[in-house]
Amino acid sequence: xxxxxxxxxxxxxxxxxxxxxxxxxxxxxxxxxxxxxxxxxxxxxxxxxxxxxxxxxxxxxxxxxxxxxxxxxxxxxxxxxxxxxxxxxxxxxxxxxxxxxxxxxxxxxxxxxxxxxxxxxxxxxxxxxxxxxxxxxxxxxxxxxxxxxxxxxxxxxxxxxxxxxxxxxxxxx
Length: 173
Fold this sequence. Notes:
Elements: E1 2-4, E2 8-12, E3 15-19, E4 28-29, E5 34-42, E6 48-57, E7 60-65, E8 74-81, E9 89-90, E10 106-122, E11 127-142, H1 151-172
Parallel strand pairs: 3-11
Antiparallel strand pairs: 1-2, 2-5, 4-9, 5-8, 6-7, 6-10, 10-11
């Protein structure tokens, strides 16, 4: 959790990802796209109201306009960060062929940094901007044969199949 002056506090929720087993000689692992969640708590300075919040991780960012009629003091934002925006990780003995099973996963304490900016505005439309950042933890799990039949994997498989069918339909038109 990181606090910027007393106006903005940011907390990152531990993300998770599954990776496939790999050859022990390949120490670097490319991560899949990740769903990352940041929580922000804020209190604008006296005589100002929260106007907007911008959340970014790597090259992915999203701006949220805040409702001036409510007393919003916290916000949770989730961003899907594409795989190509996240650097490969090195985990030499994790999830390697013929390696031990590991149900606990591997915690990587900082795979990316999340930034949040809060814009506060007064009655004369003069604004102040407050920033905070936080390191995002990721817990890696090794995809095993038993995971192939999990509900999450069946959902991903069905989603992938629908995308392929849509792609084939689009290319044949």
